[in-house]
Amino acid sequence: WAIHAPYVVAINRLKAERDAVILGHNYMSPQVFHGICDVVGDSLQLAVKAQEVKASVIVQCGVHFMAETSKVLNPQKTVLMPDMEAGCSLAESITAEGVAQMRARYPGAPVVTYVNTTAEVKAASDICCTSSNAAQIVAALDADTVIMLPDQYLAQNVAKQVPHKRIVWWEGSCIVHEQFTAKELREFRDWNPDTRIIAHPECPPDVVAEADYTGSTSGIIAYVGREQPQKALLVTECSMASNIADAHPKVDFVGPCMMCPYMKMITLEKVLWSLHTMTTPVDVAPELIKGAALAVERMIEMSR
Ligand code: 13P
Ligand code: SF4
User: Fold this and answer.
1) Number of domains in the chain
2) Which GO BP terms sit in this record (predicted)?
3) Predicted structure pTM score
């Protein structure tokens, strides 16, 4: 912390001067997560909080699609991305053209789009979802066939939870969660039978089948808080365990994790520079803002 302290002090001072609020995802590095974020949470919580922001500037400590979501919900505010290269393999896997192809293949089926997409894709969709509300939203839709995109694994995991619907999906995946395998988890459990395995639903279904609990990043935090397992293996991005370890001193967080190279692009140095120079503001084409906001707002409404 001694190395980070000067950045934390400078950022928190500049934040007040610029009338800025910092929204941070649960996958931020601990020094960002604990040091400078005003609000932390999963994708749904960040979208809900973005709706309520009073400050004139939002600094998004997360990836680009999260900043776009904040922007479409706050078109009059300045939304800053500390590193515009912080993307997401899911968001990059599909364009509005892909959404049109799916609609043509499954006429009349509603399109449920994961928030991990560009504003252009959201605007071409009927409603958004996150990993914390996907099953709830799909179940509530008045349709037998539902298109879910772009995460094939989230769609397959939801299909198991909502078996009375036909769910069709796009072939996107998260480069972090697709790396875990059921075999390694089985082997891990053989050697560590007392460890609770906790997975994110972006993992393939056979990985999820090995887990004791599967949920969004906030679901994972709530589960650990509730259950207080002696040992926990978080089958997700590495910073999750580091960020919640202090709050759960009795839980031993063990085992392998995967790093999201995009989330890790957001550093204290870049946030300081971003606030100092007011760069880089995220722009969403005016013709996309209304449609994208509608898809996100519908999701928030249905999640209440
Ligand atoms: P949640 O925080 O909504 O679970 O999302 C995880 C993720 O991969 C975000 O990029
Ligand atoms: Fe995208 Fe996966 Fe990184 Fe989340 S963890 S930002 S889904 S690549």
Assistant:
1) 3
2) 'de novo' NAD+ biosynthetic process from L-aspartate
3) 0.97
